[in-house]
């Protein structure tokens, strides 16, 4: 029912003017949604993208930004892209494996060695081939942004996989993440983000995993005592566009968007790295205990995660790992 209501709300926003919303000066308005707070690097970068696009188009294109799930939870926004009720969305990989199963490859634990390794892969052949797979789903894959390196937060200290045994840990609705945490001994509970803070405060779940910027911008220090820097998964944000909306743009408008995204992507990643470093210190200042941990036992416990998934091509995994050299 919540999904239907959210999609209806998105439809009402979009259908207010089709094709696209227009002013008296025939400005094309692109409604862009995302699931993070306004302090997150993705929102900040969308504001930057809107500035660049407006300047390059001389006001012909305008991006209106709807943060914090105003257009629905992430899966609902992706469905809205397919229906044409959402023009643009920036979402995590969590719900996307259901649309493009091969995307599960980039969700494998400890796959990327560094941010530069991730950028090289995602901006290269592997990443572009994955974006191209959205076409069959009525979606245009435009760019890879950064959600960040995912780490654990919990009510009790986590030093090794043994400390996760039986722990009720929220994950995204992502089968690769769920499988990995089962291998680590946790009891993963897939849950939409909008329910997480309340579930942590009420004891429905004990822990969750997310990048530093998500932990800080959502004030999770209020309901979690520890942050353990496992950095177990590099989490991208994907910039996606409705095929229906894309087809209504002129070739010149599409070019402006694509060129602007190159600059905005670099800005988004730089902002993400800067905020992660700043906010780790701020989390500690808020009273959260931030700890480094030996990741070797976590790596060993999840070494065979990929083998359980037919949608993950071992050759692609090998290619990604080779790119670290």
From TrEMBL:
What SUPFAM superfamilies would the database entry show? Periplasmic binding protein-like II (SSF53850)
Per the record's keyword annotation, is rRNA-binding included, yes or no?
no
Q: Which Pfam families match?
A: DctP (PF03480)
UniProt keyword list: Receptor, Signal
Q: What is the residue range of the signal peptide feature?
A: 1-26
The superkingdom listed in its UniProt entry is Bacteria
Q: Which InterPro entries match?
A: DctP_fam (IPR018389), TRAP_DctP (IPR004682), TRAP_DctP_sf (IPR038404)
Recorded protein name is: Tripartite ATP-independent transporter DctP family solute receptor
